[in-house]
Amino acid sequence: MHERIWANWQDFVGKLDIYPMIRPYLETSQITIHEVPAKTCISNAADEGYRIVYILQGSVKVVSLTYRGIRILLDEIGVGSFSGHISRMRGYSFDANIIAETPCVYLEFPDQLFCQLMENPAFALEFYRSTSSRTYQMYRKVFSLTLFTAEENTAMYCLMHPARLQSYTLDEICEEIGISRRSLCYVLKKWRKEGILKGKEKRDRIADHEQLMQIAEHIRQFYDIP
Amino acid sequence: MHERIWANWQDFVGKLDIYPMIRPYLETSQITIHEVPAKTCISNAADEGYRIVYILQGSVKVVSLTYRGIRILLDEIGVGSFSGHISRMRGYSFDANIIAETPCVYLEFPDQLFCQLMENPAFALEFYRSTSSRTYQMYRKVFSLTLFTAEENTAMYCLMHPARLQSYTLDEICEEIGISRRSLCYVLKKWRKEGILKGKEKRDRIADHEQLMQIAEHIRQFYDIP
């Protein structure tokens, strides 16, 4: 199984910046290659260890299930990036589940080998370059949930992804925004009353773009989006 | 002025891991050394650029003033660490003010020179090592404001810093927790009623430690504190 996938991906992996550093461990199968269908849980919060992966194809979602039962999308990671319980390496744990959003192909690093690779300055630098920018993106997302109301966050989401009101379920939208279903329903109901949305649930479309822009005024500044 | 400070700090700076890389720029005074009293604003949100500093003595607070007028302590940085508008290097801005908490001595890097140093893998690695762990700490702090109520966050704060209820002003406590003054007053009033606190404002002391521990049950798990 691994060999068949490997045959397809050998050329691609050979061109990665990290290839010279990981090559010996690929050859001895200490670093393994995996192919999973969409919606597979690559690693869940209960798993021990770091479970570091490097995405070769597709994208994964990092989702945290909070004590109040709300699911929050923390991060979305695509080709050419590391994922896993990276915060655990630093002694933090955000109880995240890593779920394949699309069919995925990825490399998996055993914990001990990964720590050993991090002793190599060239590998460590590649790893930090790949992950450091994303931690700021994750930070901005969570910070905006503290700084702005559920309505402002929902307005921002609708401006960024106008089609999702129709194509996503309420649960999916809640998870992507990071608010409770109750808060989302309250906001949508309010907007229908105010004429910002037209149509029934699941058929909502934005009828008053101007007003939505106004609600999102401060959060747009925060996201630096005109 | 700079020369007098420099004479005192030359030995200390000479032992830093980054010294071999920054030495030529210290000698030509492109990297400058500064000594400031407590409460000095080292850089405010309105300043342009990255304003990267490296702390040699004392500690600084990174404080964001939100659109709702709430001040949130994002980070506290001590000796041997970088600070500045680091997130701006990644295209994010959290409108932070960097304020000396104690008397401070620090090195200041002009933006262009800092970018040039980041091209040096050895310097970049030192920088990432110093900053990457802290971004997770900042993340946890802000995430906990989303995950938990003002009461839970206040309970956690009181458990971590039991003396501050008496020695800090309400404004200082709000800023450190990251909640509004109104929320804090509401929580303290509730706790006085429930007998968790005894004494009047500014003389509050924890009278029912057990109940505080119970309020903070989930947030203690999140912070991994027994």
UniProtKB/TrEMBL annotation, chains A, B:
<protein>
    <submittedName>
        <fullName>cAMP-binding domain of CRP or a regulatory subunit of cAMP-dependent protein kinases</fullName>
    </submittedName>
</protein>
<dbReference type="InterPro" id="IPR036390">
    <property type="entry name" value="WH_DNA-bd_sf"/>
</dbReference>
<dbReference type="InterPro" id="IPR014710">
    <property type="entry name" value="RmlC-like_jellyroll"/>
</dbReference>
<keyword id="KW-0418">Kinase</keyword>
<dbReference type="InterPro" id="IPR000595">
    <property type="entry name" value="cNMP-bd_dom"/>
</dbReference>
<dbReference type="GO" id="GO:0016301">
    <property type="term" value="F:kinase activity"/>
</dbReference>
<feature type="domain" description="Cyclic nucleotide-binding">
    <location>
        <begin position="42"/>
        <end position="118"/>
    </location>
</feature>
<keyword id="KW-0808">Transferase</keyword>
<dbReference type="InterPro" id="IPR018490">
    <property type="entry name" value="cNMP-bd_dom_sf"/>
</dbReference>
<dbReference type="Pfam" id="PF00027">
    <property type="entry name" value="cNMP_binding"/>
</dbReference>
